[in-house]
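Hello, quick one for you while I still have it in my head. Could you read through the record and tell me how the tokens relate to the sequence? No rush at all, and the record is pasted right below.
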Amino acid sequence: MRILAIDTSSPICSVAILENDNLIDEINLDDGRTHSENLMPLIDSILKRNNLDIKNIEMISCCVGPGSFTGIRIGVATIKPMAEVLNIKVASVTSLEVLSKNVENAETIVSLIDSRNNQVYCGIFDEKYNKKEEYLADDINNVIEVLKKYENITLTGNGSVLHKELLMQNLKNPNFCSENNQSAKNCGKMGYKKYLENNLCDSDTIIPIYLRKSQAERLKKW
């Protein structure tokens, strides 16, 4: 199963090619340009340097958020026509799932993504990367109250870096992962997990996951 994986939901524009869950190649780019400028050239580049054609791709794994509203839309909008033309399935992977793959051999994995103004997105997973409860989009203090019921926690993501001191003060012996960035590699690995579980979608049914309204939408209320 040759997989093309993309993640445009964070500041890093990331593409990867995997054979099952084994990484063949990956490109990560954070050069200040928009993902709309970078994504297609990166896909073209990674295919060419591995002597592949887009027709060699058998599945696409796409990060659908939460994260950058614009980045998420770019990623989903790019893979939709690609998957339709190739007539292949798509793995819809959340950014919280992508981050969880940074951690190995942990009883409880917590992915935290900063969403500004003391707000975070939170995903809680078991050692097999299965979701333990519904995702949270809330104030970090409210999220901490939820996390207090878990033991042997390992945290990853920029939210865990930003709020590390607060987490250490309020949780019992939390562990912190040294890797806190999202990557297409991990998006592909999680996508292959969904393939094995027969949990895929197609070009018509893949949709972004935002968890909360954009700042512009929230400001409309005022």
